[in-house]
Amino acid sequence: xxxxxxxxxxxxxxxxxxxxxxxxSFSPIIHNSAAEFLGINLRYxxxxxxxxxxxxxxxxxxxxxxxxxNVSIPHKKQATAVVDHxxxxxEITGAVNTIVNNYGVLxxxxxxxxxxxxxxxxxxxxxxxxxxxxxxxxxxxxxxxYSLISKFNVQKIYIVNRTLETAHDLVKHYxxxxxxxxxxxIEFNDKTLPDALASSSILVNCTPIGMHPNTQNAPExxxxxxNPAAFVFDLVxxxxxxxxLKKAEAVGCKTxxxxxxxxxxxxGAFELWTGxxxxxxxxxxxxxxxxxLKK
Length: 295
Known about the structure:
The chain is α/β, with parallel strands linked by helices. The chain is 38% helix and 19% strand.
């Protein structure tokens, strides 16, 4: 426990996470610990929801009067079609990671954008105006692309994905918003990948590859081509040092796991549901003990 203040007399706020799979998630511990620290009567539950059951789950949320949910892999893009309104960043990214239920009216938000931006902010000099490579083309990748363009003014973005059609769709979406931005889509086995990787100052894994329990997996990249001066960011946070990060560190790269992004995006959702600011710094100090984190 990170501390308990006097309990506030209020109706219980029910929130949770819709994802598949879900056993890896630290979100319930983070939100429930924040609520306990602030004395807010909130409970956050994990719900393993198959892709073909998302509409039913969100309809049930509305019917039960549940205050809101986080939405994670693989539901972020699909969720845009099952809410009543989209907040600006959710509309631009085409992905929702947070839903607020206001008396039966559902609004979709994307707090992944601010989560990534705040996590990357201390490294602004490394990020600003550079070339980036994104692994993946899903909802998290879209949030990272938007943040890199709008917050860090990157000049070129490579999208590496197993399915080029999905990568093309993401690029098409952003070219409509940023027509001057330079994009390039690449498959993992493309002969141009080593040169593209060598020219990238930022590398971000936006896939679940390497996530617990599949900790021996990593994106299939020519890591020997990595620029040692590159900054490598893995959105995976369980384990805290993935095989992807170990490979990057072996080359000499600076690395960051997904815990800070997880905390900051959680803080955004928490405030939307409660009107209170999450005690991020207190949580950061105690997360290793709360989560029993191991390298």
